[in-house]
Amino acid sequence: MPAAIFLSPEDAEHAYYEALRTGDADALMDVWSEDEEVVCIHPSGPRHVGPAAVRSSWRQILANGGLQVSVSHLQVANNPLCAVHNVLEQIQVESHPEARYAFVLATNVYLKEADGWRLVLHHASPAIGHEDSAAPLARTHHLH
């Protein structure tokens, strides 16, 4: 089955966060470019380069199911062929009731390829200063 075609970086980003929510690693990888130079860096983790390494890292993360991620504070820089989205992710942490949410700053870079917009870089790091907030953030992206 051919990968989905994303007509805008926003379409690709919506599909990315929806795949995280549902825990669907295959749908998540449909968003990624197949270029060997793709890069994914998870918070406090190593750099994964290439589709196989990126796929393996996400399969490990999603092995126990989807992630409840709220996205806010979107900052965008773009041109006709590239879009850089920087967001604040609020991730619900069910296994740690004392820390209900983890906060992550993420940069997602999308390139326009022959088959639509594709994710080529996801770089996430702990969002220092947000960890004390217990209230969920308002969503700027709808995940459904």
From TrEMBL:
It comes from the Bacteria. Keywords: Isomerase. Residues 14-128 form the SnoaL-like domain. Gene3D superfamilies: 3.10.450.50. This is Ketosteroid isomerase. Pfam families: SnoaL_3. One of its GO terms (molecular function) is isomerase activity.
